[in-house]
Specification:
By secondary structure, the chain is α/β, with parallel strands linked by helices. It is built from eleven helices and ten strands.
Length: 318
């Protein structure tokens, strides 16, 4: 009898404490310093309005007033950090070669027309700028714009000797976030330079969800400062709806139900961890993301997102 009462009181105390700390995490954790705040994030510079990951795309996004540029990095044979999503050049340039096997001067230009990954049957036709840029070109052109760097390959030289050094050389530790879905890459990034904020890797996202649903999250310290996750329901907009099976729809619904949690987003933002949802390309999804408490939205259509933010009074943090 007494044992049952003790267990019940202990569990009740734990649940109440967990609920309190979920709402008020700063009672236990010091809020992380937010060096910049991003609502409008241009995915690959805005891949539906200019050729992805080109200086033309980045210039257009910055001119619109984007809060952050999202881009991807690889290392060339001669040790140059280039901005490109794919490690292989076939899709973007038509050349059957890896970036790592070519010197920077040998890299071919992009195709004149590229498919937009996160928009079904959408293509972007570029102008004169088809060059694969260097990361330092981006840093030099936009010294005050936050940049979100996806380290695409687990390469020590890319992480340690190149990207980290470039960030430091251009005094951008306070304007940069880096990482990858790979936990190994994120660990190396954090170890190399803990002053540059890191993203949650995929395994860490799974751990985050486990902690959230067991009530343990409010008690656990987190090193990451940014959560970037997809909105699972966008999968229905990336392909022919008639080709999606019932099982795929169910799994999409399940993933969406688990990931898109307002209480989770509110807890993280209260701890100074920004939440970005990707890659959203229509107003319905923009609205849903912000209603759920997301800090920012990553899009291929920077003009469309800017118009939405302006029309809804969301351009500046509340």
């Amino acid at each position: 009898m007494y044992a049952a009462v003790y267990v019940l009181s202990t569990v009740t105390g734990y649940l109440l404490t967990s609920a309190l700390l979920l709402k008020c995490p700063t009672l236990l954790h010091r809020k992380k310093r937010e060096r910049f705040y991003s609502r409008h994030i241009s995915h690959r510079g805005g891949a539906a309005e200019n050729l992805e990951n080109t200086m033309a795309a980045f210039k257009h996004a910055v001119a619109l007033g984007t809060d952050m540029l999202e881009l991807d990095c690889h290392l060339t044979k001669d040790g140059q950090v280039v901005v490109s999503h794919d490690r292989h050049l076939q899709r973007a340039t038509g050349i059957d070669a890896y970036i790592s096997d070519m010197a920077y001067a040998e890299l071919p230009p992009y195709h004149c027309k590229l498919g937009v990954t996160f928009e079904w049957e959408c293509f972007c036709e570029g102008g004169e700028d088809k060059r694969i840029p260097l990361l330092k070109d981006v840093f030099e052109a936009f010294p005050q714009t936050p940049v979100n760097i996806d380290i695409k390959v687990n390469d020590d030289t890319l992480i340690k000797k190149q990207v980290s050094e470039l960030v430091c050389n251009y005094n951008r530790e306070h304007l940069t976030v880096w990482g990858n879905a790979s936990n190994q890459i994120v660990k190396k990034c954090f170890k190399e330079n803990p002053r540059i904020p890191v993203l949650f890797s995929f395994p860490r996202v799974l751990l985050l969800l486990g902690l959230f649903y067991t009530g343990l999250l409010p008690f656990v310290p987190l090193k990451e400062q940014f959560l970037e996750i997809p909105m699972p329901t966008i999968i229905t907009k990336l392909r022919d709806p008639h080709s999606i099976t019932k099982s795929q729809l169910f799994l999409t619904w399940l993933a969406d139900s688990l990931l898109m949690r307002k209480a989770l987003f509110q807890h993280l933002t209260a701890r100074g961890i920004q939440v970005y949802i990707w890659v959203l390309n229509d107003e319905e999804d923009f609205q849903r993301a912000f209603n759920l408490g997301a800090t920012g939205v990553m899009t291929d259509f920077p003009t469309k997102l800017k118009d939405f933010l302006d029309q809804n009074g969301l351009s500046k943090p509340q």
